[in-house]
Amino acid sequence: MIIPLFQSLEKLKKMRLSYSDQLTKIPRLSSATNLEHIDLEGCNSLLSLSQSISYLKKLVFLNLKGCSKLENIPSMVDLESLEVLNLSGCSKLGNFPEISPNVKELYMGGTMIQEIPSSIKNLVLLEKLDLENSRHLKNLPTSIYKLKHLETLNLSGCISLERFPDSSRRMKCLRFLDLSRTDIKELPSSISYLTALDELLFVDSRRNSPVVTNPNANSTELMPSESSKLEILGTPADNEVVVGGTVEKTRGIERTPTILVKSREYLIPDDVVAVGGDIKGLRPPVLQLQPAMKLSHIPRGSTWDFVTHFAPPETVAPPSSSSEAREEEVETEETGAMFIPLGDKETCSFTVNKGDSSRTISNTSPIYASEGSFITCWQKGQLLGRGSLGSVYEGISA
Amino acid sequence: MLNLKFDANPNVFEKMCNLRLLKLYCSKAEEKHGVSFPQGLEYLPSKLRLLHWEYYPLSSLPKSFNPENLVELNLPSSCAKKLWKGKKARFCTTNSVKYGKL
Fold first, then answer.
1. Where are the domains of chain A?
2. Cβ B77–A18 below 8 Å, yes or no?
3. Complex-level ipTM
4. Which end of chain B offers a freer environment for a tag, N or C, measured as fewer CB atoms within 10 Å?
C-alpha cells in the first residue's frame, strides 16, 4: 500500500464535516491554500484545531458552532478573507480569539468569555455581533461604539452583564439591539443616538408577561432632540410576540421601530415618556386651546355676540367702540365654557367637557341671532359631533 | 440510496478510476447505513472532485486516497474520527515543504 507522504489539498475549496461527532482532529490544512469554507458545526468531540488554519488566506466562512470540547482557537488575525466566524456554543472557550479585521459576522454566544477586549474596535467591518447566552460576560467595552458598520447586536441572555456602555458616539447602522434577559438595570441615555434602530428588545424573562410596546409611528428615528417626545403607546401584542426568548414578527410594519421594555421595573431614560393605554401625557400642541383673537370691529347682534356670550370675561377683549355696552351683555357665570374664533366673521364655538357636559350649555341662556334679534328660549338639539375640545350640539329656538 | 442495503467490497471503487463526482445521499436518518463496509474501504479514485457522503460509516478516509483533485469534501454526520489515517500522511504543497516536515 502506498502512503503518500506529501498530499496536496490545493484544489479544495469547501470542507464540510458538520455533526461528525466522533471527529477528534482535523488534518493539517497548510496546503489547502484555496480553501474558502470550513463547516465543523456540531463536531462535539473535536479537541483542537490545527494551527495550520491560520494560513488560509482565502477562507471566508468558518463554522465551529457547538464544538463543545474546543478550548483554544488558533490566531485568526491573518485570515484576511474571513467574513463569517461562528464560535457559538463552544462552551469551553474562555478567551476572546484574535480575529482578522475583515470579519463581518461574529457569533460567540454560549461561551465562557468574561469580557470583550476593547480591541474589538479593530473589527471595523463588523456588521453582526451575536453574544447570546454568554452567561459569564460581565463587561462590554465602550469601544463597541466604534464599530460603525454594526447592524445587529445580540446580548440577550448575558445574565452577568450589568450595564450597556454609554458614549456620545453614534452607531449609525445599528438596527437591532437585543438586551433581553440581562442584568442591565437601565439604559444609558445615549441609546437615543442609535438613529437607525428598528428593534430594541429589553424583556425580562423572569416575568412571564413582558410589556410589549410600540412607539409612535412618527418616531422611526430617535433623534436626540426628539427623544423627549418619544411616546410609547401601550398596545400589547401588535407587532411582536415573544416566545421562549425568540422573537417572531407577526404583523410587523416595515421601518417602524419596536421597543420591548422590561416589565420588572421602569427602565428607559427619564426623557422618554411612556404613556399607557389612553392619552395621559401632555397633549401635542395641535390639540391645545388657542388663545382668543382680538377682533377690531363687530356689529351688535352678530355671531360674534353669540360667541362672546359663552366666554369667560377675562379671555375676551371687547371691541373698542362699543365696549361699555357690550360688557353688560357678556355673561360671566359660564366659566366652564371657552371659545375659539377661527376667522373674522365666520366663527364657531366649542365647549369644553369638564365632567358633566350638560352644565356647559343651558337652554335658558340668551342667544344672539344673526339678525340682531335676541333669543331667550332655545332647546338643545341633537349632537353634531365630538372632538378633543368637547361636544357640539344643535340649538333650536323656541 | 432508496432502501438499498448491502455490504460493499473494500475495493468497490477500484475500477472507477475516472470517477469525478460521488454523491451518496440519505433522505432519512434511519437509512444512514444503507451501504456498509464490514471490511473497510481501500480505495477512492484520485480524480474525485466532489466527495459528498452523508453518514460516511468509516472512521477515516482510505489511506491511499490522494485528494489532489478534490474541490469539495462534504461528509456531514460522518463517523470519521480522523480524516486521514496514518502518521505519515501529511498534506503539503510541493513548494512549501516547511509544514510537511513537521
1. 286-397
2. yes
3. 0.82
4. C
